[in-house]
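User: what does the whole thing look like in 3D?
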Amino acid sequence: MTELASSTTRQAGPAPFADKLRFYGIWIAAAVALVVLPMIFSSGGSLTTFSLIGISIIFALSYNILLGQTGLLSFGHAVYYGLGGFLALHGMNLIISREWPIPLPFVPLIGGLFGLIFAMILGWVSTKRAGTVFAMISLGVGELVASSALILRSFFGGEAGITTNRTDLPPFFGYTFGPQIQIYYLIAFWVLVCTIAMYALTRTPLGRICNAVRDNPERVEFIGYSPHVVRYLAFCFAGFFAGIAGSLAAINFEIANSAYLGIVQSGVVLFATFIGGVAYFFGPILGAIFVTYLQLGLTDLTAVWQLYFGVIFIGIVMFAPGGIAGLIMMHRPLYRAGTLSMIMPAYLVALLPTLALACGVILLIETVSRYLVHAGDDTTLHLLGIPFDTSQPLTWAITAVLLIGGFYVARMTWRGIAAAWDRAATAARDKGYAA
Amino acid sequence: MLSDDAIQRKCGDHVLELIVISTLNGVLFGMLLFLLSSGLTIIFSMLGVLNFAHASFYMLGAFFGFQITKWIGFWPALIIAPLLVGAIGMAVERYGLRNTHKHGHVAELLLTFGLAYVIEEMVQLVWGKGPMDFRVPAALDFPAFTIFSTNYPAYKMFMLLVSVAIFIVLLVVLKRTRIGLIVQAALTHPHMVGHLGHNVGQIFMLVFGVGSALAAVAGVIAGPALVTQSDMALLLGPILFVVVVVGGLGSLPGAFFASLLIGLVQTFAVSMNGSLASLFGPLDPGIGPSLLTDVWNVTIAQIAPILPYVLLVLILIVRPMGLMGTRET
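Assistant: Here's the predicted 3D structure for the full assembly of 764 residues, as structure tokens:
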């Protein structure tokens, strides 16, 4: 946090125009990137990937209003995502049957509105307390809604879910939103709008008092705010944006089922947000990109992709609780002070053993998976193009060597990194950059 | 032809039978829940972290029990599986939670969440997704007694006996022994206990191990009776948290009563077939399928899975600290 504080004080100094340019430049660059992206990667598969990443970005950012900004760990955020999706879908069907003149781009507002309404209803009880109790209540409410969805069949459609046809809605300036590219641009538009809105929210007095409630609720109470009300407001905003994300998902897939509301969905958004990093606004964006990409990429490669997911998550929780964003921002003061080059050799030295360790872990998981689950079929697995026959003891030996040897050597090189880091950080501090 | 009187007596018998059997099953399920929630509560009181992976240790117990039963037999499995899971639990505390402690409670909670996820995936990796063929041991595969017309299996009585025995042992250890005294002291004043020369870290590790082992015992004895499958942790875990919150976070007697309460509520609800339709008569068939018909026709048995969560929300509104809790958070 100290580095943030010091950097803002520096920014408050001279050259406001350059700062303004840099600030708005980022948003304009993001908008341009969103427009240009499908022109570079125009295949159907990448368009679907971008659409999913976009939805996931809004969802993860909405989750970070709770976890990162207000310090509320929720295990049931998918409730508002799912309910938003269901209501948007019902809304679409209603628009089609009643022939209301509402085109598709406005449908996410319906989902957002109902996400907000449900957050307003369920949030008051949930946000009475923070910490572990809040986490448990969110889990309980999540389970309550997810189980109810299976009972209230006419509304949620049971296991099969409910469907719609987005092209039956009235066209919007001639666009029918049949092709994926149009859906991509619809999602991209909402991503930009929601991201700007949520960033703006962090700059408002409410956003600031949310941070205060996260850090010291007692003191907030002393200065005359009710932490409960602040948490409740944050919860409502999070529900609103989660509803938008859910309705975009419903528009994208043209189906909503009870899996939208469940604990698995809540877990994925928690993973994405935390792996990305909760302390910085852009963290969840990185996390959403990373996790969605991993989800789509790994499912093709391995049957046990969820295990990798869990292992990465545990690794982040234990060794880098700041997430990817935290890891990147750690290097900022060093970069500014120009001492980054001091740790580069240590990184390079550590690269090889760490990669060996990672390969060992992957080989272990894959070998065990082939050996036990697909014992009957093909026992050969390919890693980096090298075939490994999992029924051969040699493969197991290689795995053990990579795993144990990799771990010991890597741990030595990690100590080297820590030492080099200390030197670089000290040098940066001497130059006046807090690290 | 039965006389009216005889029919009435038969109906009365039927209701009575239902009540007795459901009570037995409910107490059994409640005691099983308590085996889990007691460990969870003690771990929470000591380490301040609600162990998300607790139900996963229960699942590991069931799967280890299944595997060891296949290799050696059920009785060794009842001892070995909990010891193994206890060792895993201690390793988790020593190498996982203790290192994460400096990052705060949220990080610890998230670590156990990730752990639950990884354990489930690993179980699926090793044993697959289908249910295991975990049979009741032959020595206990006979009806213990017959109430009315139902044979009550001896294995269920054995489960009840084991849970009650562990409950008593736990109570005696906590209240009457020196180690129990230290544990109780460390619950509220860990620093003071440390100053008195006890190794608090070691106590924490031990307690975590014992808690995990208790969960594993529950897993081994529940495995043959319930379904041993890779989703059993996911099914039981949330109910466990409901028990702990409803009983009052950190309160052992609270956990006991909440376990029994939820065990009974769920068992009774499952055996009841009433719905609003059977109470007030069916709706006009002219009304198409809607939310109203859903609510009208749903039976109590069907809403049994959501009852614990309804109870949770009600308790939090009426009595936020739980039934017997003393602290607000």
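In plain terms: Chain A touches chain B through 46 residues (CB under 8 Å). The domain at 24-322 of chain A is CATH 1.10.3470 (ABC transporter involved in vitamin B12 uptake, BtuC).
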